[in-house]
Amino acid sequence: xxxxxxxxxxxxxxxxxxxxxxxxxxxxxxxxxxxxxxxxxxxxxxxxxxxxxxxxxxxxxxxxxxxxxxxxxxxxxxxxxxxxxxxxxxxxxxxxxxxxxxxxxxxxxxxxxxxxxxxxxxxxxxxxxxxxxxxxxxxxxxxxxxxxxxxxxxxxxxxxxxxxxxxxxxxxxxxxxxxxxxxxxxxxxxxxxxxxxxxxxxxxxxxxxxxxxxxxxxxxxxxxxxxxxxxxxxxxxxxxxxxxxxxxxxxxxxxxxxxxxxxxxxxxxxxxxxxxxxxxxxxxxxxxxxxxxxxxxxxxxxxxxxxxxxxxxxxxxxxxxxxxxxxxxxxxxxxxxxxxxxxxxxxxxxxxxxxxxxxxxxxxxxxxxxxxxxxxxxxxxxxxxxxxxxxxxxxxxxxxxxxxxxxxxxxxxxxxxxxxxxxxxxxxxxxxxxxxxxxxxxxxxxxxxxxxxxxxxxxxxxxxxxxxxxxxxxxxxxxxxxxxxxxxxxxxxxxxxxxxxxxxxxxxxxxxxxxxxxxxxxxxxxxxxxxxxxxxxxxxxxxxxxxxxxxxxxxxxxxxxxxxxxxxxxxxxxxxxxxxxxxxxxxxxxxxxxxxxxxxxxxxxxxxxxxxxxxxxxxxxxxxxx
Length: 626
Description:
alpha+beta; 2 domains; 3-stranded antiparallel beta sheet; 31% helix; globular
């Protein structure tokens, strides 16, 4: 049985990650990339599907843990009757090989420890052939995969596992280093664990030192810094792509079937991630993300996907793993994601918005990039009025989703702003006309007077938290009467224990069985709206409640289940941490994403909406700025 989702911590080398449970078991690790086959898959099955346990032999130990300062070095302390030890877990930023280092440090008395290493390549299915070199090094090989274990502890084979016991006294350190390599190449060279620890600590401290502190408050520096470190850990350094999560098939409902592979890069996260990075002074990462985005969408506009692989791969075929029982029985376990083939019109707006902000911040914009943007708009002009599958990737058929139309409007609006601000060539008059048509269409068909809110799709009565983004992207001000009533309707009908669901599956027709938890990003978006409405104290209270959902080392999953008080969904979730960063900025006195995105927009005033927005903020036509 795996641990609770909230009982895991993350270590990584900026190309892959491992999840370490409070009991000292590494239950998930994909090598060599985030999206590779897992060699430890106990998270989605049992110990026989691969794990690496290091823990006291005594059954009753008190456990506490933390990250070492602003780093990704995990320190887990086990207190027993006989003494205490600290288990230090980390992955050095990758050089020639990928290493998982585990140091057992004695801090009091003498503690008898045990280790159990079960390597199972290809998502827990393949038992490797294990050999021992004359120096005690263990080599595990299966097909293309090789793992090498180096330690001073005597180990033995037992029931297709590698096990051992050892004692650690105060002042002693016992090292373990597990290294991945390609089986057709020479065995990766050994590293010095102590030197690797010092270098890893220096790497993260230097990186954290670039953080741009909030103006006027230090209130949320710690949770924001931990979220930024998590976002860095989820960035595939060779390409700049940011994975949505390092896991697959952690369920949105415990025991349910809403289980998806999130080890890919979503275009939808583009602007949120870009602003979170730039506002925190991480321009190198923002520049790399922008470059990944532009490379990935290059090609025929009709072939743009909603998500891609770490290097921009397009083929993300979905299949179910028959030999894994699923997290707490939640099946199927999915590899790949069929939603990559869906049509989701909102992504065009995300791409255009992200590239507009990147250009505003002078992140190496090019003429070729602008030409690609124009081609994307030419295609969008032909499809924006068509139904699509929407932001939540429903599998219940295409509809005219409100958020999709709003983001189509954003695409043309940002193109107009870029052309006006930077003197770029383009059919601006035509774009203005299309922008106006989309705005009129949304205002006419998406607001349901009976519900008193913008609804999920045209003709629907279902509420959807994605419409909370309407004022955040500048389509309408938050003070618009319809937005006020929409926020109030979402507070009444989509909140559970104060947290926001994406929609009600009973009315949202998503084509899936079961239910789900509260979607944490949506709850952060509600806090942003409350701030825009002048309800600052309500926004701060909700934000503090969201911060309280983080686990003991500051990590968030995709969702929260109020009924069981459990984190659910893939973990840790990039969008949850990005939303935390942005809301913290919105509630501070520095650069506020809710103002930056809105100032990049100019709501079109038509007969339909003229009465509703007489007091639209000045300066919306002047482009974004701090």
